């Protein structure tokens, strides 16, 4: 080792002493200084166990060397003792402090001890505190080794330890004698710890010095180099002569930071006001840290805190957006997180979550705040603060900034007086183009008023990483100074991450092909990548054009999207003749144009495809290129010739305001009636959207004044915008969302249709999200009727008072335009509108919410709304109704819906049939798999995803689904009677038919579906009629299900009581061991006979159980082979469930499982001995064994006392957190009854009519319900009938009978009212459980509901209100069961085929339900007769695809040619319409459904009966639809037979 040179140091004074010394390689001068100035007999060096192995021995050597150099008198007596502490925050404790003190005492350290604290902040704080109290205080020296300690913790004299109550709660002020900041230590500091310290460095610069901040902005790579690249020159940096520029920069940056802290401490040692400035980012940062530590480090939390606090300053008007973005960029550049939503943060913190309430609560108890008075440092610009201390900020502002969602409140100011003048952010399109032009150009260009947003920032970072240009700020950031690199570019060190910035990804793709192999570091290539959505957005046509031109571009993941890898080639971007398809995005064209002058040959670009999209954007590019000195020639037929050359940067370029953004304030004026002036957008604008005011707002009724450079809009009075019947927005596609929300409230004076149709916007399907479909979906949530057009959207205007902000808020899909347009609508929505993911506006207008409030005078509040659920996948045959159910379940669960097929088509921009034709089925399945796999990453939560029927045909997809269902979310198999499916599919010839026979396909796929899913749902038969609520319960696994155990020796005599004993149950268990054939063990034939009779008398699933003697049954344990034979027989007979006892032979069980097909296994264990304890080892063993075998696990024990049931529940609840299979767990005996009440899946039940109970303690369904009610698990609900007149209604009889039979605590009452408003207090009551709705309220009730079902929407009326409740609140949903009553009355009575014709008589509301029911039954032709023909036309328009044929009379020629087989009559029996016998001429007979029920037998029914037709009386239909309602409300099968009995009795009492 060479002789160490005398280092050059800097000194900084603190508290008026030059005690801070900075430099490199300082150990020796430190010892010289301390030994001469603080002579002691004992020096103690305390450090941690990470640092000691690296540095300690050298330091001890240095100490010895110094002693010998100095030739001190007492050299022999001097001692240096060392003590090591475990690294980490947990060492900052009272215990460790005591250990150190004991150590010191044991070493006889006295008052003349001097202590060195060598380490990070933990060592500094801890050891400082030891020094402060040891012997009432001994001198100590700080030797900070972490960056944080160098710039922060070592300075100021604060020392402390933590306690379980909080950090730094016990401590004192104790100033170190010296602070030796030796940057050499940083070499070994882990990178994340360095980054952590940078947060404090950036903080200090932000509050104290713009020039330091600029040093940081420009010094990113140098500073990192100084720290991380190891030098091989010894003692490099110790002297000025050996110090590299990077080292000098690092030193100056650290010194500035340390100096500022030292200055503040000097002026305010005991922290009164000034010192509070250092707390910038810490008020919020500490609150985050309290939750996310130790996963997130202090600096990382402070980094996020600084962003939030800067946003608060911006919101309050102290700070501009430029400063916020600069802060954000610097933090990111040094690798710090800026938001809690970042992937990096989420990966680190896992499931920990910062709710706003929790953060506020923590801030409240923070010692620096005083309860509701939160103190936050307000930046006023980079380098300055609003006050020289922290500023008091109100809770509502903090809450607003912290909240992920925002609620827009309706506009309240005085309209006439409001005139707003505001500038909007710079154009994103122009800013992005200007950045590229200036970067590629020669010279310096001052960009005035560029946009500061995520998008442009991403672009700047990328250009910097490509070493293509230098950026600096002037004028408080109003000006961006770009020094162009003249087109010379280099492969960046790491990949270019572009987030969701579409423009940057397109423009940069061509730019990256300009890197030539000579300038590139060998073999390296440029990778462009983005977030999950970016990875789905198309870039194919551009890449293809460049590939054809010879550029080497490769897709890294999915064909056609980012990430892509660009390899520099010898002759870079070749140029010459190029072709490009321009019908999807004009950005592809711009991308090539911008880089074209730098190609090796002059470029001639021909645009191909049917239509060039968004020509104005291409014109913009051309105009801007001209401003930078390159003139493009446009030839006939969309051909552009671009000369070679270099851009000459104009010294100044003024960026226009963004006209797409401008549509929002103008639209606020339009919708609220205020006046808004934008001073920098006018008729001469480069951007197409500038025409929005004139082309859209004026015709909608606004007053528009436009000059060359300004636009003023005054809206009409609230509620008087007019619809635009047809508007083509091709030249301003981005503005369609703004137009759509205005259309939602646009009405005509007359009662005519208020429809706005916007076309020409097909490209909006491939933006940040599928904007057309999202717009439709979100508008529907407001109660606005909207639908998709092939290249646009159609919207029915609605009265403002009927608008309803969705309970769960608008979901923005990370799309700024969705967020901003719905905030416009929110200005008038009566109860306010929640906008989720409010941050997404940052893409183009980061300060939108601030401007919305401060400039547009709107009111908002913060809402903390996010809760997440795993996505759920629906699989099943085509035609089973996956899509409809998927949508409804998504609605009910507040999740989003996504159809894999549609997604496939959107990503590849090609219809599936075309894809298959071109590439074949195998390629389709492989692609489908790929897309599904990536979806499960990108859409892992909050989605319901439906898959095409054949997804299970491809083994890798099967494996994927299986894995998903076992480890993540649920995979739900939707099953429907295959014959219904076939009929349904045949109805619609336009769907591509499967080449194989459907039955065949079904049989092949059945086991596949079974293998992939963990839940299956039979849409019709399994649990009665399946409703969305039932589905949700099944999916959430909260649905209670019951099975009845049949204990008869022979079930045949009992078949007649089957309808009664199965009331409320979900399955029937056949206890085979209890059967007896003439007193003997029954034969296989006998059992098959019993199964067949059971099937005939009930459609419920069958559980086949042979219970052995040792398990509490009657079957001999010795007959094992016979036992398995029986079970096999059951599987062959199609029993849905088979009970398998787990103690039987493992081999035989295994064989049985192999052949089980789609039968589910209930793996059971019964402990008869009563020795199994629910908290013991045995039950866990049995449980595991059952889990290995069964689809359902059944464990039965015995209860000796009540608490055995509690232990059982604890066991089940614990298991349920870990496994997904359903569990049946009960205790036998009377003491175990509570466990039967609480069990959820397949609780075995008995019925009073059974000969004996299958097990001791068994209860009936009614008893269980009563039990649940009494223990508060089934609250009483009130149900009503709303209508007028209703005195004679049968509904109370239907429902109250059902409630009583099933033991439900509910009650149903009449509520007669003329005026629909009267129901309001009833439906708002928390006890309200639901209602039937009849005339005259079926339509007028709709505005009172939160949502209406697909069926009600199609029919246009609601007859049932359902209440759903979940975490996000309570929702009232409108449903229609009228059609279901008709549907189920017809379905069992007639076979329907493609020839079946139906007739509906009447044109009112009921006839709509009739038409809908016939369509749902699969009819392709529906005759419609009504006296007024106009009604017929209206219905034909309402159901354009239903094959409705209008009849002029009931003897119409059509009827004679092709008579109907189903007649639905919806006219009153009193209308004396003539029924001709021709109606019944179809040779095969038919079904009449009569909706009138007074009298029971109408003329139509009588005449039909004469002709042999089956008649369904009105009263039967009424009962049928009532049963549907009952089932929707209770989720239980209605006790039909008794309800019918009671209704007919009542009917006869009234009418005869
Ligand atoms: N007193 C104050 O004014 C003040 C101010 C800010 C923070 N703090 C305190 O500082 C502590 C955090 O300090 P920290 O971030 O330095 O944590 P730390 O002391 O735990 O150090 C971080 C990690 O880096 C390691 N390390 C440190 N220097 C190293 C080096 N040169 N080479 C290799 N490894 C090295 C450490 O062993 C540790 O694992 C907290 O307890 C905080 O409360 C105090
Ligand atoms: Zn800090």
Automatic annotation (TrEMBL):
Binding site for Zn(2+): 200, 282, 298
Keywords: Amino-acid biosynthesis, Aromatic amino acid biosynthesis, ATP-binding, Cytoplasm, Kinase, Lyase, Metal-binding, Multifunctional enzyme, NADP, Nucleotide-binding, Oxidoreductase, Transferase, Zinc
3-dehydroquinate synthase N-terminal domain mapped to chain residues: 84-195
UniProt binding sites for NAD(+): 89-92, 120-122, 125, 145-146, 167, 185-188, 196
Region called 3-dehydroquinate synthase, residue ranges: 1-395
Active site residues per record: 271 (proton acceptor), 286 (proton acceptor), 840 (for epsp synthase activity), 1166 (proton acceptor), 1194 (schiff-base intermediate with substrate)
The protein's role, per its UniProt record: The AROM polypeptide catalyzes 5 consecutive enzymatic reactions in prechorismate polyaromatic amino acid biosynthesis.
Full protein name: Pentafunctional AROM polypeptide
């Amino acid at each position: 080792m060479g002789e160490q040179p005398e280092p050059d140091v800097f000194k900084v004074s603190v508290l008026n002493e030059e005690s801070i010394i900075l430099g490199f390689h300082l150990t020796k001068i430190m010892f010289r200084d301390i030994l001469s100035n603080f002579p002691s007999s004992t020096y103690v060096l305390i450090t941690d166990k990470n640092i000691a192995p690296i540095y300690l021995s050298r330091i001890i050597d240095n100490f010895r060397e110094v002693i010998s150099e100095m030739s001190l008198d007492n050299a022999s007596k001097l001692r240096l003792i060392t003590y090591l502490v475990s690294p980490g925050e947990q060492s900052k404790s009272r215990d460790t402090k005591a250990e150190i003190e004991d150590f010191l005492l044991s070493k006889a350290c006295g008052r003349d001890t001097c202590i060195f604290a060598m380490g990070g902040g933990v060592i500094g704080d801890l050891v400082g505190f030891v020094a402060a109290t040891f012997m009432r205080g001994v001198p100590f020296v700080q030797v900070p080794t972490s960056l944080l300690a160098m710039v922060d913790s070592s300075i100021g004299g604060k020392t402390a330890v933590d306690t379980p109550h909080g950090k730094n709660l016990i401590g004192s002020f104790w100033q170190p004698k010296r602070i030796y900041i030796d940057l050499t230590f940083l070499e070994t500091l882990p990178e994340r710890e360095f980054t952590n310290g940078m947060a404090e460095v950036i903080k200090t610069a932000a509050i104290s010095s713009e020039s330091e901040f600029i040093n940081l902005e420009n010094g990113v790579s140098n500073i990192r180099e100084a720290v991380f690249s190891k030098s091989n020159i010894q003692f490099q940096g110790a002297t000025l002569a050996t110090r590299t520029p990077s080292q000098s920069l690092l030193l100056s940056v650290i010194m500035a930071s340390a100096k500022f802290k030292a200055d503040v401490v000097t002026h305010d040692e005991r922290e009164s006001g000034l010192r509070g400035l250092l707390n910038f980012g810490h008020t919020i940062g500490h609150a985050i840290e309290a939750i996310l530590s130790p996963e997130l480090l202090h600096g990382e939390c402070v980094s996020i805190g600084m962003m939030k606090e800067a946003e608060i300053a911006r919101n309050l008007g102290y700070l501009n957006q430029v400063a916020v973005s600069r802060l954000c960029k610097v933090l990111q550049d040094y690798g710090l997180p800026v938001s809690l939503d970042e992937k990096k943060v989420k990966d680190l913190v896992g499931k920990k979550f910062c709710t706003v309430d929790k953060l506020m609560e923590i801030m409240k108890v923070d010692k620096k705040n005083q309860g509701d008075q939160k103190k936050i440092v307000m930046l006023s610009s980079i380098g300055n603060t609003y006050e020289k201390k922290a500023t008091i900020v109100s809770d509502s502002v903090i809450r607003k900034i912290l909240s992920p969602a925002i609620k827009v409140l309706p506009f309240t100011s005085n309209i006439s007086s409001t005139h707003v003048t505001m500038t909007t952010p710079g154009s994103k399109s122009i800013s992005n183009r200007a950045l590229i032009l200036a970067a590629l150009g020669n010279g310096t260009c001052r960009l005035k008023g560029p946009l500061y947003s995520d998008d442009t920032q991403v672009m700047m970072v990328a250009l910097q990483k490509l070493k293509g240009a230098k950026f600096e700020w002037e004028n408080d950031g109003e000006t961006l100074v770009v020094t162009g690199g003249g087109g010379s570019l280099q492969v960046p060190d790491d990949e270019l991450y572009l987030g969701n910035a579409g423009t940057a990804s397109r423009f940069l793709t061509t730019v990256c092909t300009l890197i030539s192999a000579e300038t590139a570091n060998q073999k390296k290539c440029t990778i462009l990548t983005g977030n999950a959505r970016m990875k789905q957005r198309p870039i194919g046509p551009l890449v293809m054009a460049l590939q054809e031109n010879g550029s080497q571009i490769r897709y890294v993941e999915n064909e056609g999207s980012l990430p892509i890898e660009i390899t520099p080639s010898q002759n870079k971007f070749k140029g010459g003749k190029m072709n490009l398809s321009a019908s999807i995005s004009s950005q592809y064209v711009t991308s090539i144009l911008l880089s074209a002058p730098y190609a090796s040959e002059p470029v001639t670009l021909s645009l191909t495809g049917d239509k060039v999209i968004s020509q104005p954007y291409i014109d913009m590019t051309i105009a801007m290129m001209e401003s930078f000195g390159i003139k493009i020639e446009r030839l006939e037929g969309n051909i552009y010739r671009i000369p070679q050359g270099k851009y000459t940067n104009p010294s100044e370029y003024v960026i226009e305001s963004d006209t797409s953004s401008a549509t929002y304030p103008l639209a606020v004026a339009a919708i609220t009636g205020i006046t808004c002036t934008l001073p920098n957008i006018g008729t001469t604008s480069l951007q197409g959207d500038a025409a929005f005011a004139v082309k859209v707002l004026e015709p909608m009724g606004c007053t528009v004044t436009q000059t060359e450079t300004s636009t003023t809009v005054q809206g009409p009075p609230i509620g008087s915008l007019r619809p635009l019947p047809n508007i083509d927005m091709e030249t301003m596609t981005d503005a369609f969302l703004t137009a759509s929300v205005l259309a939602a409230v646009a009405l005509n004076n007359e009662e005519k249709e208020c429809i706005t149709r916007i076309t020409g916007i097909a490209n909006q399907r491939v933006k940040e999200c599928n904007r057309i479909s999202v717009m439709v979906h979100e508008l529907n949530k407001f109660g606005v009727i909207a639908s998709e057009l092939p290249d646009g959207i159609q919207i029915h205007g609605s009265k403002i008072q009927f608008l309803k902000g969705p309970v769960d808020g608008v979901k923005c899909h990370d799309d700024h335009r969705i967020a901003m347009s719905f905030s416009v609508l929110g200005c008038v929505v009566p109860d306010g509108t929640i906008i989720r993911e409010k941050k997404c506006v940052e893409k183009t207008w980061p300060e939108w919410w601030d401007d919305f409030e401060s400039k547009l005078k709107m009111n908002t509040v913060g809402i903390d709304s996010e809760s997440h659920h795993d996505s759920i996948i629906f699989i099943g045959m085509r035609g089973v109704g996956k899509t409809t159910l998927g949508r409804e379940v998504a609605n009910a669960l507040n999740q989003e819906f996504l159809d894999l097929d549609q997604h496939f088509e959107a990503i590849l921009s090609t219809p599936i049939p075309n894809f298959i034709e071109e590439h074949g089925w195998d390629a389709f399945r492989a692609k489908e798999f790929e897309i599904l796999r990536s979806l499960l990453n990108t859409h892992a939560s909050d989605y319901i995803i439906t898959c095409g029927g054949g997804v299970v045909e491809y083994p890798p997809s099967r494996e994927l689904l299986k894995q998903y269902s076992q480890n993540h979310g649920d995979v739900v198999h939707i099953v429907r009677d295959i014959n219904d499916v076939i009929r349904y599919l045949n109805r619609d010839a336009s769907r591509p038919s499967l080449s194989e026979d459907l039955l065949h396909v079904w049989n092949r796929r059945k086991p596949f579906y079974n293998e992939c899913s963990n839940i299956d749902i039979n849409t019709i038969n399994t649990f009665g009629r399946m409703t969305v609520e039932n589905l949700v319960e099944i999916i959430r696994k909260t649905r209670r299900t019951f099975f009845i155990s049949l204990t008869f020796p022979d079930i045949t005599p009992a078949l007649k009581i089957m309808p009664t004993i199965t009331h409320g149950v979900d399955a029937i268990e056949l206890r085979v061991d209890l059967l007896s054939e003439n007193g003997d063990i029954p034969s296989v034939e006998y059992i098959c006979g019993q199964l067949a009779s059971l099937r005939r008398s009930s459609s419920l699933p069958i559980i086949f159980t042979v219970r052995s003697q040792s398990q509490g049954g009657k079957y001999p344990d010795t007959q094992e082979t016979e036992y398995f034979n029986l079970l096999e027989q059951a599987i062959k007979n199609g029993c849905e469930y088979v009970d398998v006892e787990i103690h039987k032979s493992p081999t035989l069980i295994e064989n049985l499982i192999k052949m089980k097909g789609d039968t589910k296994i209930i793996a059971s264990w019964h402990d008869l001995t009563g020795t199994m304890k629910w908290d013991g080892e045995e039950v866990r063993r049995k449980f595991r064994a059952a889990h290995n075998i069964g689809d359902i696990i059944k464990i039965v024990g015995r209860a000796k006392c009540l608490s055995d049931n509690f232990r059982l529940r604890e066991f089940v609840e614990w298991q349920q957190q870990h496994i997904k299979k359903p569990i049946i767990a009960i205790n036998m005996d009377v003491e175990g009854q509570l466990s039967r009440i609480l069990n959820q899946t397949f609780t075995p039940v008995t019925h009073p009519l059974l000969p004996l109970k299958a097990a001791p303690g068994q209860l009936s369904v009614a008893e269980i319900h009563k039990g649940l009610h009494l223990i508060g698990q089934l609250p009483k609900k009130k149900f009503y009938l709303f209508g007028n007149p209703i005195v004679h209604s049968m509904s109370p009889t239907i429902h109250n009978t059902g409630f009583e039979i099933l033991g439900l605590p509910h009650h149903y009452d009449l509520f007669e009212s003329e005026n629909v408003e009267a129901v309001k207090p009833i439906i708002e009551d928390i006890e309200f459980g639901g209602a039937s709705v009849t005339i005259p309220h079926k339509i007028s009730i709709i505005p009172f509901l939160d949502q209406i079902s697909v069926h009600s929407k199609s029919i246009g009326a609601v007859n049932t209100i359902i209440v759903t409740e979940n975490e996000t609140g309570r929702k009232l949903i409108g449903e229609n069961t009228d059609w279901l009553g008709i549907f189920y009355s017809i379905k069992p009575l007639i076979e329907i085929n493609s020839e079946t014709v139906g007739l509906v008589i009447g044109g009112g509301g009921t006839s709509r339900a009739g038409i809908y029911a016939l369509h749902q039954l699969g009819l392709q032709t529906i005759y419609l007769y009504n006296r007024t023909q106009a009604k017929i036309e209206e219905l034909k328009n309402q159901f354009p695809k239903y094959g409705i044929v209008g009849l002029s009379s009931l003897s119409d020629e059509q009827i004679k040619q092709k008579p109907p087989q189903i007649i639905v009559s919806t006219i009153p029996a009193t209308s004396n319409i003539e029924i001709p016998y021709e109606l019944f001429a179809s040779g095969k007979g038919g079904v009449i459904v009569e909706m009138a029920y007074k009298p029971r037998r109408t003329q139509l029914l009588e005449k039909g009966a004469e002709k042999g037709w089956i008649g369904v009386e009105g009263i039967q239909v009424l009962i049928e639809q009532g049963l549907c309602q009952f089932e929707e409300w209770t989720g239980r099968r209605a006790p039909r037979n008794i309800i019918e009995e009671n209704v007919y009795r009542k009917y006869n009492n009234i009418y005869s």
